[in-house]
Specification:
Order of helices and strands: HEHEHEHEHEHEHEHHEEEEEEEHHEH
CATH superfamily of the largest domain: Dihydrodipicolinate Reductase, domain 2
Strand order of the largest sheet: 14-13-12-11-7-10-9-8-15
CATH architecture of the largest domain: 2-Layer Sandwich
CATH topology of the largest domain: Dihydrodipicolinate Reductase, domain 2
Largest sheet: 9 strands, mixed
Number of helices: 12
Strand content: 15-25%
Helix content: 25-40%
Number of strands: 15
Shape: globular
Structural class: alpha/beta
Length: 432
């Protein structure tokens, strides 16, 4: 396939702020059974969105009808790839609000940067769309709670994109923990050891042709454009991302809470910093967080390391659960092993995956939230524990937290970090 420059791609797009190609011919839904064929729009298609496209297109009686991205170049490239792969054209939109106005779209799949996840999902719920939203479900705790409220108020199916929730092996592993295979489970250790290089400091530069920079920033405060943000390294800036604990780490925070059978903690301690690179990242390269549950006698330890490091019992990204009769190692999304007794005798083990997109669509068709493996309530919790760790790190002190009110009692400074300043028209509504 020819490599197009940004200018080449823009020349091929239709004029105007919204590049639109012809819709494909739609086979009447009666051919598949009434209301059975689902039309999905994928919003944010540069990174994880590519997996969303292929994940939904492989499903039975499902059509990815619209692609949406604030970058016209990415949008045109992905639409071209889509047509070659699937022999059909797809509608393109630059503004997600246009997607929500389309009454023919049944569900949206959101793979934007973190700072857009909750608002994009709330707007979708308000527009009557079911939602698959990437991790983390929210950029801060306030957003997560409002998204849960929106899903409930508008009775929408909202799946959090932590695919290990649909893994047959991990589901079996959790059952072993509940059934007492390793005894009393008192600690989970989450690990994120990813290769995160020096990103330098590119400074401000002109906004590239085709990119709607205002729309990209959305709910965040206005900054000058920099290539350090777009399209991936936004993860390392507080306005847009949440560091690696809020990036890769949400898979593991979700699993830690699931395995321990706990909600949000009462005490949080975090420490870390930047020790490797003198670049412009704002988030810590190394972060060690501890989440205490004194009433339940449980604890979560979480560690992010970015470069040269050892594995822990074979784990680079995953969780280790500790009980009084053994321990369980979960490596990645689909693999677990157990070791029992003082001599660490091998116990049950399995490697098997699942299909998180399929699970979402089953719930959508049945209009039954109970079928979801990753309901938005779990997404809010998994993201929130990561946010709590970041807040403790940024304030440099141990924090006391009330899981019932989702606030820091008597701590004005910490409570101010539960939300952010928003800018019109990209406002998280107080009442969804």
């Amino acid at each position: 396939m020819k490599n197009f420059s940004r200018r080449d791609v823009l020349k091929t797009a239709l004029p105007g702020s919204l590049a639109v190609m012809s819709l494909p011919t739609i086979i009447p839904s009666t051919a598949f059974g009434a209301n059975d064929r689902l039309r999905v729009a994928v919003i944010g298609i540069n990174g994880r969105g590519k997996d969303h496209i292929s994940g939904f297109m492989k499903q039975e009686n499902v059509e990815v009808a619209t692609l949406c991205d604030v970058d016209k170049v990415v949008l045109q490239e992905r639409a071209t790839d889509f047509e070659k792969k699937y022999s059909k054209k797809v509608q393109m939109e630059q503004d997600l609000r246009k997607v929500y106005e389309d009454k023919t779209i049944d569900a949206v799949s959101i793979a934007t940067p973190n700072h857009w996840h909750a608002l994009a999902a709330i707007w979708a719920c308000q527009a009557g769309k079911d939602v698959y939203v990437e991790k983390p479900a929210c950029h801060n705790l306030y957003e997560g709670r409002k998204l849960v409220e929106a899903a409930t108020k508008y009775n929408r199916i909202v799946q959090h994109g932590v695919q290990l929730r649909s893994s047959a092996a991990i589901q079996e592993a959790i059952k072993h923990l509940r059934d007492g295979l390793i005894g009393k489970v008192y600690m989970a250790r989450g690990t994120v050891y990813k290769w995160r290089p020096d990103i330098g400091n590119l400074g401000p530069s002109p906004v590239p042709e085709g990119l709607d920079w205002d729309l990209w920033q959305g709910p965040a405060q206005v900054r000058e454009f920099s290539k350090n943000y777009v399209h991936y390294n936004w993860h390392w800036f507080w306005d847009y991302g949440n560091g690696d604990i809020g990036n890769q780490g949400v898979h593991e925070t979700d699993l830690a809470m699931w395995g321990l059978d706990v909600g949000l903690p009462e005490e949080i301690t975090s420490a870390g910093g930047k020790y490797l690179w003198n670049d412009c990242k704002e988030t810590p390269e190394v972060l060690t967080s501890t989440y205490n549950y004194p009433k339940q006698g449980k604890v979560i330890q979480f560690e992010v390391r970015p470069w040269m490091t050892n594995k822990e019992d074979g784990v680079e990204v995953g969780n280790i659960f500790y009980g009084d009769k053994g321990y369980m190692v979960i490596n990645g999304y689909n693999d677990y092993k157990t070791f029992l007794g003082r001599n660490r005798e091998p116990g049950p083990a399995r490697n098997a995956g699942g299909d998180h997109y399929k699970n979402f669509l089953e719930a959508v068709r049945a209009k039954n939230k109970a079928l979801l493996n990753g309901p938005i309530e779990t997404g809010h919790l998994a993201a929130s524990i990561a946010h709590l760790g970041n807040i403790a790190y940024r304030l440099g002190r141990t924090l006391k937290f009330d899981p019932k009110t989702e606030t820091f009692p008597g701590d004005k400074e910490a409570n101010a970090m539960l939300s952010r300043k928003y800018r019109a028209p990209y406002l998280i509504p107080n009442k969804v």
